[in-house]
Every structure is written in C-alpha cells, then in structure tokens.
C-alpha cells in the first residue's frame, strides 16, 4: 500500500463527484435507480465487512472496507442532495459541532480526571440537551438494527454514565451467578419436554444471563461483540482443523464419531497454544 502521498482535502469531493457521475442521466442505470431504502442493506453489509477486517487485524483489508463504507456514505449524501434534504457538508458540520460540544475538557475550560469521568460528563451533557426530542437517556442508545449483544453493552454503558451501575466487576460476577442459577432452575423445572410457558421462561432467563454477561464484559473493559466474534473465529479455525485432520485420514465428517472429532479439536488447541506468544507469568503473593 502506498502511503507516501499526504491525504488531500478534496478526497471526499472526489468521491462525491464520482457518485454524481454515476447518477447522471448518461451514467449507470443501476446507480440511478437506487433509493434510500435500497442502500440500507449495502450500508449494513459494508459496516459488517469493516468490522470483520478489524476483527482479523488486517490493515490492508480495512483500507478497502473503509473505502467501500465511505462510498455508501457519499451515495446516501448524494441522494439527500438530489432531494434537497441535506448535503454531506451538513452532516460533517453537525458532527463537528457535536464533538466540540461534547469535549469541553479539550475545547473549553472543563477539567476531567480520567476516561470514566469523560464518559459520565458526556452522558450528562447529552441528557441536558433537549433539542433532539428525546425524553430518556436510553432513547436512541441502541438502534433496532444493532446486534442485541452490542445493544446490551451500549445500554448499560449509557446508564453507567449517569451513575446507575454495579460498583465493580465482582458485583456483576455475583449477578451472573444469580442469573445462571435461575436459568438452571428453570431448565430443571421444565424437564425434557417443556411446554410453551416453560419455553418462554427459559427464553427470558437466557436473555437475562446474556445481558448480565455483556454487562460483565463492560466492567472488564472488554467489547462483548468483539470478544464473541473472536471466539467464533477461533471455533471456525478449530473446526476447519477437524475437517483437515479427517481428510488427511481419508475420512469424512459423517464417518467420524465424537471421540475422534474431540481428539482433533484438542490437537488444534495444542497447536494454537504452541504457536501463541508466551504469556507473562502471573504475579505471586
């Protein structure tokens, strides 16, 4: 990747001009037909692909995905301009003003001790601003399209910003244990063939447990969505190792039993640990 040339202040203009050309009468028929609802799926797809590049720690892929994401932003802005609703400059002006207003410790005289104080100040300042028409701190905290795990993280994060929070991670661990116990009791009460009411209780208790785990992750300064994405990727790699191991033996998945797959799974884990950087020793008392 060539990074010698400094970024040009006209880079966004070039992208907007590109979209305008695609939307021109002699441009692309497909691009001319696109509407706001049409672009929603593409916006979500590019956002998820950007997140995937982040999860994989792949800077080269991230450059490409950020470009694709910016293209969707430019396209949406062009639609807004054509409709006479807004321009990209309006969005930039608004977010710039918001960020300056939300950082009085940088652009004003306010003094904040640490990142936690900054977050609490941020949420209090948002709550005092009534121009957005919201009546609750949590209004708009988690869009309906957000994955539920991300939403749980953001909801508790916002509530914490105004002091509604557990005192420490130990208290959240206790809550996780409590929710796990409640779920276990519901499982035992439901038996082997739970009826509709029992399934609803199991669903509710499972949700409570997942919500508490997301809250625990926040207290541990861990992004639960990112952590789960990493766990998913690890599972994919280990399962692929099972498939490769079976193929090396001339066998297929449906020919292997659980013991053989477990053996290959454990082999994959050992290889991962052998190739992983050595962890620093834990301090002893």
Would you kindly provide a written description of the structure presented here, covering whatever features stand out?
This protein is mainly α and 285 residues long. Among the domains are: 89 residues, MazG-like (Helix Hairpins), CATH 1.10.287.1080; 51 residues. The chain contains twelve helices and no strands. The model has no long low-confidence stretch (mean pLDDT 87).
Secondary structure layout plus pairing:
Layout: H1 11-23, H2 29-33, H3 36-56, H4 59-82, H5 88-102, H6 104-107, H7 115-128, H8 148-161, H9 169-190, H10 196-219, H11 224-248, H12 258-275
Helix pairs in contact: 1-4, 3-4, 7-8, 8-10, 9-10, 11-12
Short description:
With 285 residues, this protein is mainly α. It has helices at residues 11-23, 29-33, 36-56, 59-82, 88-102, 104-107, 115-128, 148-161, 169-190, 196-219, 224-248, 258-275. Helix 11 packs across helix 12.
Which descriptors apply to this entry?
12 helices, 285 residues, Helix Hairpins, mainly alpha
Average of the residue pLDDT scores: 87
Helical proportion?
55-70%
Instruction: Enter the CATH topology name of the domain at 11-99.
Output: Helix Hairpins
> CATH H level of the domain at 11-99: which superfamily?
MazG-like
CATH class of the domain at 11-99: Mainly Alpha
Ends apart, CA distance between termini: 48 Å
The quaternary state of the protein chains shown equals single chain
SS field, number of helical segments: 12
SSE pattern, N- to C-terminal: HHHHHHHHHHHH
